[in-house]
Amino acid sequence: MRICFIPIDDRPVCYTLPKDICAMDEDIELFIPPRDSLGNLTKYANTDMIFDWLNHLPPMDALVLSLDTLAYGGLIPSRRIKDSFEEVRARIEPLKSVITGKKVYAFSSIMRISNNNYNEEEKEYWKDWGKKIFEYSYNSSKLWHAPETDIPPEILRDYLQTRKRNFEINKMYLDWQKEGLFDTLIFSKDDCAEFGFNVEEAKELEELGGMTKTGADEIPLTLLARAINREIKIFPKFTEPEYKDKISNYEDVSIEKSVLGQLELGGFNVVDSEEKADVVLVVNNFIEKQGELVMGWDTPLYDKKFIPPQKPYAVADVRYANGGDNGFVNQLFNPELSLPEYGYSGWNTSANTLGSLLAGIKVKYGAKNYNDKAYKKLQIIRYLDDWAYQANVRGQINEPCDIKELMKPFEEKVLKKIFAGQECPVYDINYIYPWNRKFEIEVKID
Question: What number of other Cβ atoms are within 10 A of residue 211's Cβ?
Fold first, then answer.
């Protein structure tokens, strides 16, 4: 199966993770643009290069497209770029001839509104006016009229014009959908609150026939799962079932609805019992409120005795955002237990964790040419990144630095567990900061 995959940007979770997932089935050929053609924190994607790459592809079975990359140069540029609606439309218009007659799974973001004065991923003025703009958006949506504000008129005007441009581009994609150009089209809701311009835009897109989903970075991976058309029966099993109606950080729906939404989008069949399932999705959910170590938001660790399902299973560790739950992972590393057969994930938001994990399940289940070495490599990376670094080592450092010695005890523990009873290969494991910030690392394994 040949799949074209255009990521949001060049981060490892967007660029190397889909490659590591697809490597588990050697029957899947993943075609992905050169990494240096994609955008990052400070650079926009080279859309001319990507379109040229697209036009020289061999026949594909499916195309998974991040439309923000092709229209704006990436997810972050979609909030920063100054181009007019006409300029963006002219840039993206050639895509119609590329995708006509093909199976296309695409997504575009609804512009987020972060509730902070941190402008690393926003326009320059966000450092002074970000919280005020969030409040203006929230109250405008809640009160149904524009409230009084001291935001400078030229800044508010620029912000509203940027939102309107992106919203009109999304409505244009709906017209394309009516022409039959997309097999699946998703509009993503990232960093949502109960009220806001983004919430109102999502409602309007839905009224016009669009499909919206909470999340962003993981949606290309969930669409990748959807493109791999394999019948899998999944039973979601929550570690805290009485709290599955609670809402995760950065999301606007309950964790149960988030799980079911990702399963639906990924093309899975949800069943109502473990006995009926091919794979059990164990969701390590939170009590009352999701924790986040880097923000100082605590929540009770998993402290019950974990009894694995009788069926093959995977673990979506969402008790904390941006890092795994030490209480739960330490139980998984109990010598008496085997690690989940279909993988572990605790990456960033609940939606990020779920989408990436489900893509791995879809590829591994029924793989026509299964590669166990690739599966083990994927699991080493996930445990070292999502658990070892994000939930432990990240809190011990103040800025990007050499973390090799800090990670070494975790490396030994992870490798010993993954290769229990087998000869462990000699790995050279290194860590880099692709965007020169603590937020993410890239685990490089040779």
Answer: 15
